[in-house]
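Why do we care about 3D structure at all? Because function follows from shape, and shape follows, mostly, from sequence. That is the central idea of this module. The next example makes it concrete: a single protein chain, its amino acid sequence, and then its structure expressed as tokens.
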Amino acid sequence: MRAFLIDGETVSDEAEDFGNRLALAYRNRSRPICLCSNPGIPMYIAMIGDQPTIKRMPLTGGAHHQACPSYEPPYELSGLGALMGHAIKLDDDGRAALRLDFSLSKRGVGAAPSAGTETLESVRNDSRKLSLRGLLHFLWHEGGLTEWTARWAGKRHWRQVHSHLVEAARTMSVRGERLVGRVLVPEPFRTEDKTAIEKRRALALAPLFENKAGAKSLMILVGEIKDLTPVRMGQQVVIKHLPGFRLYLEDETWRRLQRRFETELTLWQSADNHHLMVIATIGGSPSGLVAAHEIALMTVTEQWLPVESVHETRLLEVLTRKREKTIKGLRFDLPRAQPYAAAVLPERPQPLALYIVPAGADSEFEARLKDMVEARPDLAAWIWRVGKDEMPDITD
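And the structure:
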């Protein structure tokens, strides 16, 4: 049972009229207070589908009690810690103010650039700005899509993923502008609603084709790749829930994408139940087509949990069968040579952080991992040294 202070009254989430109270508070723009700690922690109400849902405010998860569903592990266990206070800050309205290392505008009307040259070739460890892949990780993190318990089996589909990503974008801003106005997340496609859905899509994309002087606006597309098919002198990206919509990649861009995101592509191709997520900046071309400018990929499991290796996939196969909560860690913009917690089990008397040491890791990797573990004596540590040991048991 959870307790909240709503409009000056303490309310249990098990109360029969809790849903009605949330709906009223949502209409009144009231801000619930989570009472898991003293003092209480401000929350907000979002509509997930047609259901009012209490969500934590951006970057407040660490203030919640570890037994609270809104708790988040310490940020320094993931790549988020390096970004806090620099690339990601809280603004005066309680949104996460982002500094991006990619542009949301483009000057000139020529062909699309070699999509995301720097993003494709490397992920920079620059804590002052957020990369395109880092933004995708942050949307996943703030949307609560890194969390899982076996009780949710069969209950997370694109409809839920779409709603959580859109709500996460509502809590973010770039240079004072709400990010949600620049993000296109395909709504679940239904044949019977085809005309209305395509009309909403055209309206959302209309700013890309405005005939105005100066820089042209770009948008951010976040979706699931359905297929990658060769076309004349390039590659075509087909996005699920966007029938008739295509992104074109030139040959050289496609070759760089394959090199930079070889792991993500291989994981997707080797597991039928994995999803391949794409995030791209897109713009309108004079021909009326939508072109990709920068692009990054992320592989997620059947439960929509991000993975970056077969070893993380194996670990999640064990964790997702447990009824206790798992919080999947994210690398954000950390280089692969730097350790991070692959997952955290927060509901234990002493929360457990799980680390994977890849085969061939050097002494510097081991030293950094040792420092991470010793810096958080409040967390127990589980370490799997791939290539040296079998995966250790994860006892309850």
